[in-house]
Amino acid sequence: MMLRWALVAGLLGGLGQSAAEHLASGVDLLQQNQAKEAIVELEEALRLDPESSATHFHLGRALLAVGQLERAAGELQSALPGSADPGAVRYQLGLVRFAQDRWADAWTELTLALQSRPDLRPAEYQRAEVCYRIGAVSEARRRLEDLAAVTPRWTGPELRAAELASEAGNAREAAEWLARAIEIDPERPGLWQRRGDALAAAFDNEAAEAAYRRAVDLAPDVVAGRVALGYHLFNVQRFEAAERVLQEALRRRPGDPAVQLPYTEAVLYQGRGEEALAVIEQAIATIAGASTTLEHGVGALRVGALELQAKILIKLGRLDEAEQVARALLEVAPRNVQGHFDLGTVLQRRGDPDGVAHLRTFKKLSDGREHRELGDEYLRLAGDASTAEREYRAALEIDSLDMGASVGLARALLMSGDPSAAAGHLENARAQGADTVEWHRAWVLALYAAGRFEEARTAWEAARRQGMVLGPAVWAILREAPGACPSGESRT
Amino acid sequence: MAASPGGRLLVAASLTLTVAPAGLPAQALDLRAVANSGLDLVQTFGSLDKSYITESTGSGAAFLDFDVDGNLDVVLVNALSEATGSTVQIAQPAPHPALAAGRRGAGHRLYRGDGQTFREAPISAGVREVVWGTGVTWGDVDNDGWPDLFIAAIGADRLYRNNGDGTFAVWSNGVEDPGWGASATFTDWDADGNLDLYVARYVDLQATSVPSRGESRCSYAGVEAFCGPEGLVGQRDLLYRNLADGTFVEWMSDRVDQAAGYGLALAAIDCDDDGLSEIYVANDSMMNLLYRHTPAGEIDEQGLLSGAGYSADGREQAGMGVTSADFDGDGRLDLYVTNFHNDHNTLYRNLGDCVFQDETDLRRLAASSFPYMGWSALFLDIDGDADQDLFVANGHIHPAVAERGIEPYRQLNSLYVNRLRESGAADFTTVTATAGDALAIRESSRGAVRGDFDNDGDLDLLVTNIDARPTLIRNDTSMAHAALRITLVGRRSNRSGYGADVVVRSGAIEQRIQLRDSDGYAGANDARLLFYLPSGVAEAVEIRWPGGEILRLPEQQPGRLVVDERYGVVARSAQ
Predict the structure, then answer these.
(1) Does A353 touch chain B (CB under 8 A)?
(2) Is the Cβ pair A269, B344 closer than 8 Å?
(3) Digits of tens for pLDDT over chain B (575 positions)?
(4) Which of A445, A389, A438 is nearest to A419 (CA)?
(5) φ, ψ (nearest 5 deg) of residue A429
(6) Which of A38, A92, B19, B116 makes a 20 to 30 Å CA pair with B184?
(7) Bridge partner residues of A304 (DSSP)
(8) Which DSSP helix (H) or strand (E) runs through A452?
(9) Closest approach of chain A CAs to the CA of B317, in angstroms?
(10) Distances in Å between the alpha carbon of B139 and those of A198, B150, B161, B162, B193?
């Protein structure tokens, strides 16, 4: 606290006492992430001393924090003339322009900040971020790599580089970046957990487990670390160990359905069907009660829980209850593959002819799913568009309503250079209700590749209004930022 | 002792069987690898780096007594040492090694057993062809009392007639389809007394270009790997009818395997207890199939409706091996199917009338199988306690994955002991680590067959290992109970007695074993059935022949019986 006050006193210079107090209070609140309260103090300081560059600067920061971007830009512009540290102001202005999606302006301000303060590493970091946000991913990664080389005590570049490597499907590289971050800050549990994720994705399961365990050791009370370890042990089919870890997580966070589901399966795989049923029933009760507060993902959790419950009930021979659960599942998700399988199984055993119908529906959906998943693998892992296309077409031949297959086929066609056909399949999927990020991304890319530029832009904006982030492939074609992120520029 | 058509089996009369008093101590297992077995063939299967899917599936073996001398003999199937994408062309059959110029392979081997070890029969008695052999089975096709041999291949399959003089001769009789036969079973589908033949087939190499590892962008666990079977064209299985004149014709082709699945293993089992065997086919990455009989005797595929087509998650699995037995003592034949690494093998309990339920986890078989890639599986009573234990041969298909330390290529095999007699619960305990040195061997195993090669009254094992010698495992475990060994001779039924059901009651326990050739993967087993007798005697023995007749025998002491369908017990010995 003394250090901060000394700093503030230095910045205040010759301000009158009252304005200085408000400014100091505002800065203090800002540092405590209480931006709204800070704005009140800083506005009062400004009223008392309208010419204070420092007050304009900090008010600009506070307004940026609460998303009042135009006002923030104005205050920062006002701070510039009298500022003793124009680089810092330019940097904040760059952040504002970044938040405004004004990529070229952001680039300019950040570049000016660096000209003023060549050692202002966050400005270079943010320039890499501008590159990423206009779709120049490779350039962003190169800049982060350079930055990491000159910031031996800052983990930011390493972490961001790891994220970009993961996004590109290069888990081993991500793990290496995280190892470098851990060298800088070995006591941060989150780094170990993320390294565990990357190692697991790279199939280095032993090292992943060690990383997860280190995260747990460093922060025994943080449930997320235990959950990550439990998930990993579950995924490598060490069910007994997974059960122990997830049980501990549940002890610390009772009734979390996202933990209860894998815990149930771990218990079931060890042959304890009744116990597994009891846990999943608790999870379902929790989900039902929490649907208003856990909206994100609650639908998927509920479906997963019902699938599990129906399966266990059938195994235990409790067919009446299984039928009820399977029907509830199909009510929530009418095309749920396992729902039809379970209901069909129960009815078939009773000799009810509807059982055959449900099993046939299951078979159709399942066969389509197999082809679709195979198409996904060919596209994602092998980049083999023609084989993927064949699999997606096979999926759609079986189940023409498979929206995932339609989108996949469109992606494969796009990759093969047939955007018009891709757009046609996407339109079909849309007519069936497709509204996922993947659909919007493919739609924008197809329109653009087909030369329908304005429609592509309109479609992108529509997706953005829905809160969707379509990613660098779309940004690369639709974000205009003349002069920003030149690839030949000498870097840090 | 009387044959009575239309009678009921013991199990049919009391479907819920009594189990022995719980708490019997588990037997200490002693399974030993036989060092100098004489089975010296390295069963080559393409290149060691496994560049093609055609190099991955391995060859099988058979226990049989081809010379009818009372000692088990062995057939080891062999393939070639290299492959190209057009394996079909290089795997065309040649009648003799001398004609196999340019091909590198040692050919199949037939070994004659003396009750202790094996020695190769002269020029392997006519079966030493250099082809891309896969699975093998045997049966008395012409009902002459001499077991004949069928070897499936990539390329033409082959039937060999047993000449009855210690030799075999190639028998061209209509089963030489040049596809990718993987496993086969002889079964008398129409109960006419002649063995028909079902061949499970894998990938259609003529409809598919098979890319090599490196040519394609296929990967497994992030490592470059050969492609398939998914993405390749499956090959329709074949059912052949035995016309009883020395020829076979394809049968009901419009009903068999219409989806052309990736068939790898199969078993003929009577799952609805009507005296006729159904055929169950384990498909890789596709729904498993179950063929039932229509009232008109035609074939009706009911995998979907049976519950044994998918796992309980409604997922196709990578079916690679299958075995069947009554593991829970309820008198019904259940199924166990092996699957891929990182998935569980699946135990299907028969609820009656061929309706199955996946109870893998409830029977404690799920968690332990995930780390292995299962191939052959065998139910067998390894410890003589009158219940069916379980052996699984394991081995990966991608050596490059092991080189990266991700999953081992050479794996331990698995042995599970059924706790039905110990605790009353028909669930399983893994005993691999304590079962003897034979279970400590790590190979990339494929086939496994069971048989009492040393005639000491317990079941031994023969495991085939890809690109390596097989492992002969002698069971030196002290059996919990004395054994009754039954050899069947069909008369109205097929001579091999395949499809016959035998139920033995000893004390409060009834055991049912159905005789079949194929069980596991790519192999065929000893046809002599072993029952262990908790009360010291078999108070009742019933045999239901595939023709439908039931033969009831009075109390039997431990020992060996040869039972002829027409003449009843024709030989009995105490040993």
Answers:
(1) no
(2) yes
(3) 333 333 334 443 333 333 444 455 566 999 999 999 999 999 999 889 898 899 999 999 999 999 999 999 999 999 988 655 444 444 444 433 333 444 567 899 999 999 999 999 987 788 998 889 999 999 999 999 999 999 999 989 999 999 999 999 999 999 999 899 999 999 999 999 999 999 999 999 888 777 778 777 788 988 999 988 988 999 999 999 999 998 999 999 999 999 999 999 999 999 999 999 999 999 999 999 999 999 998 999 999 999 999 999 999 999 999 999 999 999 999 999 999 999 999 999 999 999 999 999 999 999 999 999 999 999 999 999 999 999 999 999 999 999 988 899 999 999 999 999 999 999 999 999 999 999 999 999 999 999 999 999 999 999 999 999 999 999 999 999 999 999 999 999 999 999 999 999 999 999 999 999 999 999 999 999 999 999 999 999 999 999 889 999 999 999 999 999 999 999 999 96
(4) A445
(5) -65, -40
(6) B116
(7) none
(8) none
(9) 11
(10) 54, 8, 10, 10, 12
Decide if A366 and B314 are in contact by the 8 Å CB cutoff: yes
**Contact between B492 and B565 (Cβ < 8 Å):** yes
Q: In chain A, which residues have their Cβ closer than 8 Å to the Cβ of B312?
A: 311, 314-315
Scanning the structure block, which residue is given the tokens 């079966």? B127
Which pTM value belongs to this model?
Answer: 0.91
Q: In angstroms, how far is CA B428 from the centroid of its own chain? A: 21
Q: What is the largest CA-CA distance in chain A?
A: 91
Beta strands B263-269 and B540-544, pairing class = unpaired
Q: Which residue's entry shows tokens 């040195």?
A: B437
B chain contacts of residue A311, beta-carbon cutoff 8 Å: 312-313
Are the C-beta atoms of B228 and B213 separated by less than 8 Å?
A: no
Nearest to B160 by CA among B210, B193, B206, B123: B123
Phi-psi region of B68 (alpha: psi -120 to 50; beta: other; left: phi over 0): left
Which of A270, A311, A383 is the closest to B313 by Cβ? A311
Model ipTM value: 0.91
DSSP character for B112? E
Q: Which residues does A436 contact at the CB level (< 8 Å), separation at least 6?
A: A403, A407
Q: For residue B453, how many other CB atoms are within 10 A of its CB?
A: 28
Dihedral pair phi/psi, residue B60, rounded to 5°: -110, -165
Would you call B516 exposed, middle or buried from its count of C-beta atoms within 10 A (0-12, 13-18, 19+)? buried
Q: Are B72 and B472 in contact (CB under 8 A)?
A: no
**For chain B, percent helix, then strand, then coil, each to nearest 5?**
5, 35, 55
Q: What is the largest CA-CA distance in chain B?
A: 66
